[in-house]
Amino acid sequence: MSLVVKRNAVLLALGLVFQSGMIQLAVALGTVTIVAVTGVKGILGLGPAVFLIAGALAVGPAGRLSDRVGRMPVIRGGFVLGIVGPLVTAGGCAVPSGALVFLGLGLCGAAQSIVLLSRAAAAEMFPPERRARGMSIVLFGVVSGAIWGPLVFGPMFSNRPLDAQDLVVPWLAAAAFTVGGLLVSLAVRPDPRELSRVFATPEEDAAPPLPTRELLRRPGVATAVVAGVASFALMAGVMNLAGYVAVGHGHSHGSIFTVISIHILGMYGLVLVIGDAVERIGRRRSMIAGLTLIALSNAGLAFFASIAGMSLCLFGLGVGWSLSYIAATTELVNLTSPSERGRLVGTSDFLSSGAAAVLALAGGVLYTGAGGAVSLAAAAAGLAFLAAAWVAGSAATLLPSAPADA
């Protein structure tokens, strides 16, 4: 691995360190902000849905654009949106205005989905047999979100009630985090897309990129897309409601950050180990194992109402997502040429965010009107088990660089 690749990987990881501060707040307090500003509890799932739908709408075009102009101009644009989004949300809390809050959350969601294209940009800089490891190096930067919450945001809400005015300063702080990410991203050179061309075959260089619908028919792609979409949607849909579920169990707003921080630790704290594990046990087995762990962790939320119990379940949810999502994204990168992968990864992310938005809305309805946390947990666990069974039964085609799968 060249020094240039190492430097770029570290810089991409550092960008996600700053980005994770903004996302920590958006995830932990998105639903709480909506209810505080509007006063309507029945729309608590709408905040996460707006966040995820905006991300879905943004990432597809962003992926296609990155195939034409390079990865970093697009990722830097994501950081810009990540600065504007919290500022608009803070304005919505100050006025107060529900419309501004929804707009701000939407910009935050678009920023998150675009900046997370960094994971694929990192993977493609590495040889095919080491791409899971390369992706894990960059994703490890997001584990810092487990630190930002308790150290920075937690004290802001300690032993105090929350109203819209109390949320202005935290959202301004979230914007400041993203400024740091933008500055770091300016130093990533050359563009990861250019570095990836070293590993392209002459046939891939000569062939024109296929339309998305044909890429989805390529052997192995559908399996990876299903695993990636299911793991992200079931993780994000539950994660975005976890803060309100914790408050519903009688816990303080400050304790939300403990649960979300431990969840982020599960998502990213073990990624370096998980990247190596994916390369050893194979991508398909990793997808199945991750989805199964997601199912078990979601099921646990039906039985645990304490902060410790919820934290344990959210930690397992994060680890399961990490295992299946890294495996699925690595597979998509390996099954495409440099001129195709931005479009395919963007399409997968579009489907993932869209499905997560639907699950967040449906989960909000289930939680408020049909049995609370038990119904939410049972539905999420059942869907994860179905996805694991589908991947296990599919005829996935793996590249020779991956270990053989049963």
> Count of DSSP helices?
18
Radius of gyration: 20 Å
In CATH, the homologous superfamily goes by the name: MFS general substrate transporter like domains
- The general outline is globular
- Which structural class matches the secondary elements? mainly alpha
Low-confidence residue ranges: 396-406
Task: Determine the N-to-C terminus distance.
Answer: 31 Å
> How large a portion of the residues is in β-strands, by DSSP E?
under 5%
Under CATH, the topology can be stated as: Growth Hormone, Chain: A
The multimeric state of the shown protein is single chain
Helical amount: over 70%
CATH arch. level architecture: Up-down Bundle
Helix-strand pattern, N to C?
Answer: HHHHHHHHHHHHHHHHHH
Mean residue pLDDT: 84
Describe the largest sheet: none
Count every beta strand, where a strand is a DSSP E run of 2 or more residues: 0
CATH class category:
Mainly Alpha
Please, how many domains? 1
Salient structural properties:
globular, 406 residues, Growth Hormone, Chain: A
Would you kindly provide a brief summary of this structure?
The chain is mainly alpha-helical. It is 77% helix and 0% strand.
Describe the structure.
This protein is mainly alpha-helical and 406 residues long. The protein has a single domain, classed as MFS general substrate transporter like domains (Growth Hormone, Chain: A). Helix 1 runs antiparallel to helix 8, helix 6 runs antiparallel to helix 14 and helix 15 runs antiparallel to helix 16. The longest helix has 36 residues. It is globular. It starts with a helix and ends in a 13-residue tail after the last helix. The C terminus is likely disordered.
